[in-house]
Specification:
Blueprint lengths: L14 E6 L6 E6 L4 E4 L6
C-alpha cells in the first residue's frame, strides 16, 4: 500500500534516509547503520 509514508523524524538513531521521492518529498528508502538492513518503498527494478 503506497498510501502510507514514514515521517523521517520518527526514525530512530542509526537509521539513515537513502532515497526521497522527488515529487512529494516522502521517504522512499532507508538503511540501518551497523546492520545489513535496507528498505525501499518502490519497485527498484522499474
Amino acid at each position: 500500500n503506497h498510501g502510507f509514508a514514514i515521517d523521517p523524524d520518527s526514525l530512530p538513531a542509526g537509521c539513515t534516509v537513502t532515497q526521497i521521492n522527488l515529487n512529494d518529498g516522502t521517504v522512499e528508502g532507508f538503511a540501518v547503520e551497523g546492520r545489513p538492513v535496507q528498505s525501499v518503498q518502490y519497485h527498484p527494478e522499474a
